[in-house]
Fold these 2 entries.
Entry 1:
Amino acid sequence: MSRQGDWNLNPMSETYEPKIVAFLCKWCSSAGSDLAGVSRIQYPANATPITVACSGSVSPQYVLSAFKKGADGVLVSGCHIGDCHYMEGNYHARRKLYLVKELLEFTGVEPERFRMSWVSAAEGAKFAQVVRDFVDDLRPLGSQDKMRNEPT
Amino acid sequence: MIRIEDIRTQARDILETGEVRAVIGWRRGSRGMAAEPVLISQPEEAESLVWDPTCFHNLSLNLVQERKRLARKGMASNKPLALVAKGCDARSVTVLLQENHFRREDVYVLGVSCEGSGVLDERKLARVLDGLTPDSAAYDGDDYVFQTEEGEKRLPAREVMADRCLECRSAYPRLNNAVFGEEKTRGLEAPFAALSRFEQNRGAERWDFWKRQFERCIRCFACRSVCPLCYCEECVVDSIRLEVTPETTADEKANRIRWIERSASRSDNFGYHMTRALHLAGRCIDCAECERVCPVHIPLRLLNNKLEREAREKFGYEPGASVDLPALVSSFRDDDPNEFIR
Amino acid sequence: MELILEKGRLDDWIAALEGWQAFAPSQEDEVWGYRPTASPVRLDHPNTVQPPKNFAFPQREVFFRFEQVKGEPPRLTPVEPDAARNVVFGVRPCDGRGVVRMDTVFSDHVEDSFYLGRRKNLAYVGLACLKPASRHCFCKSVGGSPVSTEGLDVLMTDLGDCWLLASATPVGETLMQAAGALLTEPSAEQRMELARRHEEALARPQKSAVADVGNAATRLKDNFDSPLWEELGKACIACGICTYLCPTCHCFDLNDEVSGGKPLRGGRVRTWDSCQFPDFTMHSSGHNPRDSLGSRLRQRVSHKFRYFVENFGTPQCTGCGRCVSQCPVGIDIVNVVNRVCASV
Amino acid sequence: MGDNIYLPQLARVSYIKEEVAGERAIKTFRLEFAEGEGFEHECGQCAMLSIFGKGEAMISIASAPHVKTYKQFSIMRVGRVTSAFHELSVGDVVGIRGPYGNSFPVHDWRGKNLIFIGGGCGLAPIWPVIQTAVAQREHFRDITVFYGGRSPRDIMYQAELEKLRGAADVHLSVDKAEEGWNAYCGFVPANLMDKEPSPENAIAITCGPPIMIKFVIQNLRSLGFRDEQIYTTIENKMKCGLGKCGRCNVGKDYVCVKGPVYSWDVLKDLPAEY
């Protein structure tokens, strides 16, 4: 029995597509991703977006949980510094998730697997680029097995 | 040089005058060399207090436990509780005060500056003594002296001292009501020396190392139980809701998210230890009790040290430095690292 | 069957055990544990951190898997216990006695197919403790002995330049027969040496001892309400070390681990659990029958020295000393039993 | 040894009734075996019910042994599994294994007066005994049922209790007085004292919240009931139901095997850890 559902597990296969879980702030990055969509900007469909109230609301537990459930990469994207709807949420996100990033790397998890970006509602093209780059960087790493649940 | 008589006298005095309700300290253990935590409430019991290299426990844990015990019984104490605290232990009391777990007037700190004499690492000692089992340990200058079945064994303290003590930056309990010992720190090794040694490993070597550690974890939760700052009534790894009052609804119990399963599998163990380290970021004061008690020798101190050093270097933050500090992750600076963000 | 194995030939014997996967104590990051054998196997270990309990009672075990499409009946797929034949070397007699106690629990009333399924394919080759494996050993005071064969298939005794192997079960004989010519008849001197060494081991005092194990059950019953329990339990930090490292603690939890949502997929999983955890006995209502440290210490100690005696006529504790040596705060079960039993 | 003792059988929900609404809601479910051989049970035994993905809960079987077509369970919504049960619809399939535990020695009580004292959802575990006694009415003498809830809306099995009248004396109560309530107002133990049943040739069977049981037993004893005339059930947290997992351990007993039914003369010697 596979616990990964239809996720493609074989990194060597031509069709391997890294699976990204993207936590997007609803005020900017989520809107930015929508803009990328309506602007018909081409970018890979590897990211499953999860809209959150603020990048500051992203608990390290969300990141770890996404990896545990089999994400190959986790993206957290919020408003540019100074533009937070809640004034300082993204400052908190930056500090907290910096620690998550450092700790992951410390344990030997490939640093490319966790990424943050600031993408405003107007930056559809940037969002597309962020995802494109992320997919490109993840592809050579193959599937993420370090933190993933072992099969039941 | 710390004289145990001084600590006993002070403990007796504050119990006699009724200034405190009880004193938490160490006494001779019943199972051999190691001292054990004790809570005394009678002045005459002060005679049983000891101070030796096996006083490794961070007694602020007992402070938290005693508070919880009273709360469960619906009792409140109108008098402060005293504890004997080394420099490191006093820093965890500071964090507890910073987090409003106690009011300052509820705690009486009998501070002990170990003057850099540190405490024993029993595993290092076992390696050196090779089968001998000491009955007692004592400080003597730069040495620890052990009574064993083959008579007295004298060892340079630095050979068997806990890593965190070798790397100690501040042995003096800044937070105190009374203090014993001088303001002196030996710093036998550079701060974060063990961490730096580990960081010479690169990505794949690191993972090989941690994979092995996480696969060995048996999830006995001793690391969590022994940590004075793991005081949450309910932990992310608990399988059921622990705080249940008559007002708790069935929905609250039913809908509790299980982020981490009980299984001692590598992925769940990874989730547990990462979560714990992150929750201790900016709070852990490196008493290293988690590492000491781990029955399968997982070097948990490395995880905590890593975040401690990041906080220090990148955010200028030092856990336990002051009661007035804001929490690490609920504060920020304009110049926090940003270059890692696209 | 009593035969001699030269010291240098242990690996050859292990290699001769066709169809068996062999395990022996080795160190990983200075943690002694049972791992697949790697030559040379020395058997010079102190007490392993964990007893060999995992072999028949792994810390995590899946009983069945489920799959359910919303609105449709679930589909269950039972799991069979691992059928591998494992032989474990270097088992101390206290842990051998632990095996017997685990067998009792998992066979009593209803047979646990998972435990017994593994157990029937398991063999234990013991190692006589010619000197105590730790300062906290107290097997002799709880009815055991450093040379006991209870629960073991073979008992090995170190005679200096060779091992003397004594079979204790038919399985043990099979294991020894597989060695063929590696094993030789002991000489009269070797037999005498064995007797001498066993006598010496039996005579050697242990630092720790339960004072009067025969009356412990009664005394613990009399002192059930003693205030000593709370006093002795006060230092307890409610971790699971004592129970997880115990060769006879068998409590467990059952949970559904979900691995996929559409369709719902997962497994029902047994994991070890501990009576020392505060949530162990807590009802959903929040009511907790054992809600204090003292009551939980009393449960652990009473189970070992009273309840098991009342049910099966023998203490459950085998005196391995792990809960004593590994307790973060120095709670010593021997001290607890002795203090409570001696109190009026 | 090949039997997977932890593998449930599958059963289909054939009937659901909401007994009590609100935060402490109780629903009654009837389960019909869908696959597997099913099982027979005795009065007082329990079954381990599964909702896959949520887990298992030990629930007493509330239907009488002579009812062969289904097993009935009345489940209060308190936690993860019981909440999931409250979400079920007729036709849904759940897991069931059992029966577990001992039973009430109903056969030995022939020729006696039976007094049942229940509170809250504690009517469910003794309900099969009541049903059995009524079904074999000629074998028993007086049957009396005391039952109470917090308010009239907390009374379960209302229609069934009304149907009992004639075969049994039924004394209902609510904790607090309320418009339109004509029966007794006050706690169940008080109602018991009010009616003063005689211990003569009688057996008292009680189940309910722990605090109620405590006072009921106290009151029964003051009415002259001997310890061996008093029966109750204890329901500790259970995981395996097979005397292995240790959750329900009280003294030397694993309640899932030696219990849940105890006479007071046995139970009083066990530690009060339930």
Entry 2:
Amino acid sequence: MDNKEINNTKLANEGLSEQDRPLFCDARPQSYKPLGKYVEKFLNWARANSLWILGYGTGCGAIELRPLMTARFDMFRWGLAPRPTPRQAGVFVIGGYMSVKTLKRVIRSYEQMQGPKFVIGLGSCTINGGMYWDSYNTINRLDHYLPVDIYITGCMPRPEALIAGFNKLKEMIKAGETDGQNEYARNFDWYKANQKKIVKDWNMPDYNW
Amino acid sequence: MQEILNKLIDRYAIEPIQENRHNQAFVTIEKNRLPDVLTWLRDYEDYTHLAFITAVDYPEIEKIQLTYMLHNYILHTDLGLRVLLDRTRPEMVSIHHLWKQVATYQRELREMFGIDFPGSPGLQENFALEGWKDIPPMRRDFDTKEYSEKTYFPRPGRQTHDPKEYMKEKLYPSAKEDK
Amino acid sequence: MVNPIYILVIALFTAFLLPVFDKMGRKYSLGLFFISLAAIFDITLQLAWQSYNGVLKANIFTAGSIPPFSINLRIGGIETFLITTINFGALLAAIYLIPKFNEQKVYAMMLFLTLIAGVNGLILTRDIFNVFVWLEITSISLYALIGIRQNHKSLEAGFKYIIASGLASAFLLLGIIFVYRLTGNLNIDMIAASNTLLVTKGGLTALFLIVIAFLIELKPFPANGWALDVYQAAEPGVSAMVASIVAAGFLYVFYKLIPLLPIYWFDILILMGMLTFVFSNITALKQKNAQRLLGYSSIAQMGLLVAVLLIIKRFPLHNDLPYNLIYIAGALFLNHFLAKAGLFWLAGIIKKDKISDWSLKGNPTLVIIFAFFVFALVGLPPFPGFWAKWVLINRLAQYNLIGWIIPIVIGSLLEATYLLRWFGSAVKQEAAEPVKLPLHKIIPASIAALALIMIYPAFANSLVNTRIIFQIPLLALAMMAILNFLPFRLQGILMIAALTFFGWYIFPLAEGIVKIFEFIFIGGGIVISIVSLNTNIKRQGYYEFLLMLILSLAFIPLAKTTLEFFLVWEYMTISSWLLVLRGKNGEKPALIYILFSLAAALMILTGFALSFAETGSTSLQYLRFLRHYALPVYILLAAGFLVKAAAVGLHIWLPGAYAEAEDEISPVFSGMMSKIALWGFIMLMGIMGTRALGIFEISNLLGWIGVITAFAGALMAVFQEDIKYLLAYSSMSQLGYMILSVAMLSHLGWTTALYMSVTHLFFKGMLFIAVAGLVSRVGTTKMYEMGGLIKKMPVTFISVLIAIIAVSGVPPLSGFGGKWLLYTALLEKGWFLQAGLSFFAGAIAFLYLFRLIHTIFLGQLKAKYREVKEASLWYLIPQVIFIGAIMAVSTFPNLILKPIMAAVDTQFTSSINWEGYKVITTLGYWNGNAVMIITMGVFMVPLIWLLSRVRMVQKVEQFNIVYAAERPERPETTHFAYNFFSHYQKAMGFLVNGQVSNFWNSVSEWFHSISSMVRHIYTGNSQTYALHIIIYIVIVYTLLGVN
Amino acid sequence: MEHGLFISIIYAFISLSVATIWGLLLGGIALKVVARAHGRFGPPVWQPIIDIIKNNARRTSISHGIMYFLGPVFRIAGGMGTFLFIPFIFGSSVFGNFSFAGDLFLVMYFIFFGQLGMALGAGESGHPYSAIGVARGLSQMTAFELPFALSVISLVIQYGTLNITSIVAAQQGGLLSWTLFTNPLATIAALISLQGMNMHNPFSIVIAPQEIPIGPPTEYHSNFLGLLQTNRGLFNIAKLALFMNLYFGGATNIAVMILKTFLLYMLTIFIGASFPRFRTEQSIRFFLGVPTVIGILAVIVIAYL
């Protein structure tokens, strides 16, 4: 599968001490071209029907994820399943307000997920800060830091809204409209600059493999 | 309650006392005497529980006020000890030797108010704000809205309403027409 | 002919002449002194020569008439031997004392000469009153000599000696008076000839008084406190004389009196001797002062000699009197004489009161001398003590005196405990300041040491019919010691060449099962020794003992007689012990190891002795004809081998010995030396089969012991943090399987045992070598300090990986063959529950094996090991050889199974069929070749799939892990390694929480408590000591039933 | 070998494919059954297959080193090997597999091959949770192997052979000649072990998602995870086939095999769904208690009574 768009420049990893630098990989993220049309369509179908959610409740909105697993809403029907480790998860649900401290962890986890990966912004806070719009410690616009595939509005959105959001995401995946991973890789420097602007103690590599 | 206040007055000649309820009172003491008083209260008067430490910023009088809230599990009474610190260089004696967990409170106060507690373990470690370089955000002269707008890419098109008027408008649209 | 009376004359005459010469100057008097000593020695030598030629006249009559009218001297074989020894010793002692003589007044020399005259007189005279005279001369000069140090303590000691020997003399004189009154005679031979004395009550009392006087002079337990103070306080040179020369005199007088004693006294007196032997040794356990410790040891040896002399005279042993006298009493005496005198002189050289302050490190001469003395006292070959012990225990067994073996064994073990502990600490201790080696002191000590080793050929040749090749391990040691000047690596190459030559020579001689063991010992020895070439820095004694160890291992299976077996067995014990002792923290483990090994050796010795007693032959094959003693012999030998095999309960020596030996030695221990126990069992069971113990078959019991050992070893290995301890326990576990298999006594069982022992050599040797290489780079043996080394040491990783797959028995590697054979054999035999337990043990093996590879090679690399390199080539070569062997054996199991089965066919009829590579038993089948091919096949399919997508794989670094959305801070806190199986500890730990070591600790504690209890009787007060003597006399009097 | 090499490989391939697909579907059915028990619809039964496709369709992956890379290979090679040494369907030449190469003990020890390789691969990822998971898994494994081994020993005594085909052959001839009825104690001991082998509740501490994200495979993803999931289906069937052969009369055709493995699997699922989780030391103690005693009894009863 020779579909990698290779960019071989190394990352500087200036946030790390000299001692720590060899402990982390310094390669840049790469973007990928889709495979042949029908192959990609089939694979997208599989991706859409097996969405593994990273079990990281980043804010108060995460409380709305739990009912999804219960008998009443039963998200497993749609091939959704929670997954405890970013390596295996494919969907990152940002659950509401995002403090700077959490954002740092979110970036790390997002980068540790394997592509193709999708981000769902949950609740108003991820759109424009919501009720925390003037807080000194809460971001206002998630899409300046991560490529967001879909927003679900509300404060809080109900589980039904979430299901609708997931289904919308599935349609988008099947249609091949979700390109977050590639977008992140192509605009890597812009995202990184935004992230570094607010994350003051950047004591991690520029890209967390 | 009165008993303990009397004792305090007798022992430490403390004057300003504010008694809120029959089982809650606040006294203001000199900052250097605080460890003495706390030790005595803890060891002899059964105020074994330090509920919290909190701070209030008074830029008007150039002071920061610290409140140590103690609780007595036998009498179920609360006693707040207040200390006034100089606002330009706020510094307070650390009491982590009395209650180990106080170190965490002191870390938070250092970060949010910029109060120094020399000798407190892990004082310089991050509490919630990692790598904060501005003036401490809980100081009242820190403008959080301005900071947010400067830092967090505000999304244009945001509207602000007066909640009272807005709800009235939404819930009783007819009332408006009446005007 | 020379008249021996000149000895006495010269000594006494010169003694009185000395002051005159001293007026002319100290040089002259000293010259005269030595001339006289030399003259005495010359006379003795002439006498000895005459004695050798048989022209010696035995009786010398003085004053021109015959007894009883005058005193007569006798100079028979024993007397010649004794005075030769004594005057030789006196010469050495005099050399040692030269500076003392120089600084003291001339009286010191006079006293010395009178003392020599006294002792010579004691030995020569046959007149009982004359004995008293010489005794007085000896005693008086001695207590003056004791005071030569002229400090408070030595004067006090001399005073105590006066009291004690005064008491003795008083009793002696009384006795002599009574005897004379009764018999009208003073000549010992004549008294013995006339029975009149023995029958009357008064006569017995008289005799008792005489005997007790000499008994007291021989310092029996517990009436010997005064003697201990003498040993401790006197100048070491004088103590040496007390322990050797003077003791010899008293001992011989006692021997002369033995014919007078009534036969029913013997048992009590033997008991007294044995009590002295055992309790002196017990008391010595807690002793910290070097000279006092040696005093205890001397007293113990005297006790033993008294007992032995009485035994020789009392029991049918006297049928073969000269032989027994020479080879038991003579050997013991010589051994004690040279070693003890030497040790006292050594104490004078070191000049440290406390034994814990002794340090001989970096002083090879002293170490060798010290080693000779200590080993001789402990009774290790090739010193006379070994032969004495061998003959003595054989004789005791032969004449049905088994009861007396027990105190001898216990006493010897106790003596070994403190002496070897002392040796270990002295050798290992760093010296505070360099020891000075004055010539006058080092010469006598070295001569004594040389004499000890020179006696060896005399014993080895005339005593027994051992084949000369069984001395090869010792010769190898000597050869390597001579080649010590060569560069170290060259020594190693020479050693490997010697081994190869030896293998080429010996391999055709061996056949059957022996051949397989020779393959393990020689082949394994050659490969494992390559590791030692990694350094060129000289290590004293390294190749010497290694070669000796490997050769003795190789010789054990070749032994045809019990003595050959036992001799080489002891060589193996010594060399392996010294190798453990060489380890950095080897002192304590080495001590435990040698004590257990000696206990095992003594059990084996007793077993062999019993066998000899019944069959009258030392041939190992004669074990099969045993009838009466079959069971005890079987149990004793099996117990000895169980100790060597570190069976559960007896295993506590193993981990320390394996782990604390040097890294290059551990593979030899684990891969090769452990197999010798297996050979023991194969030999034992091959010859004797099995025996019933009550309702149990012993083989059945052994099987259970084996499987429990396998289980316990595995479980203990799980909880180790130190990599070498882990491997050591693993070896114990593996050996348990082998014992289990051998105990099955079936074709399949033995095939399993041999298959396992060969493959165990491969993978355990490889593991220990890999670990040695690893440790040489990282410098620690704690597993949790390592981690992530796979990228740094890939070859080592691969060999460890292959080894652990093989150990755990996962197909397709060779370990599975062992497991499969084991279970098939067990089920065929009908040992079902054993099969269940061994399966469990096998499963537990996964735990420690995974931990081994994970905590070292996987996980997080520590910052300090970022620059670590692969182990040096010398470590890798043997590993690669072993990897090749494992792969070959795994793919073509026939290579090894066929020869093993052919060897076992000689013992049992086969129940195995072959179909190409397929082994078929009555129960199941296994095709190692096909399994290998299929495994390779199924491995390739997914591998190819992954490799087809390898381009999309991003290679990342060690901290690129998901860490609960944090970044790992330090490798140390990210590497999960310490207390890896904590939950297993919670569930199963209670089984292995040190019950066994607690038991052995309490045994040791118990002996030490007895020791300190007994010590309380020695108050240091001369009145108490006198009281002791009186009480002792009363007790003995009562016990002997004189009235 | 009974057939030519090429035919053997073809047969093995067919056998492996059928087993893998059936194993994955079994996993899906289990999810469905549990969902229905909860009153949910649950995922479709082919969900495990979609997951595998999805994981193989991942665009990126990372590697921590060679052993990490080979870990899943070891794992699935272990699964395939184990399966291939078991005669899948009695009397069938297509599904007879390579059982000529070794007997029951080979199968029991080959199970470890994959586990060991996987443990090593997970170990190289450097993740502490992997190591913790492996430590727990291995500890628990030692415990449940004991009753199983005792049960097998009992069986070998009963049938006088280690040959799985012969054991199946001896059970032909009616329901009552199954080991289940001829040797119930051994069967019970083995079934309890099976619960542990399948790592279903109450013995699921190894993968405990709530505390150590997912146990040994915490760092595995993409293709690697795909292989592991494929192995899960295959290995499940291998174990079930082994149990079916040893205790439930084997299978003479595919339908019987499907029925028996399904029922056997459902048994573990139901037990799993009704119990909470043991801690490691608790499950070790449990296995070394009653099940071991049952196993010993099974041996004693068969051997000496």
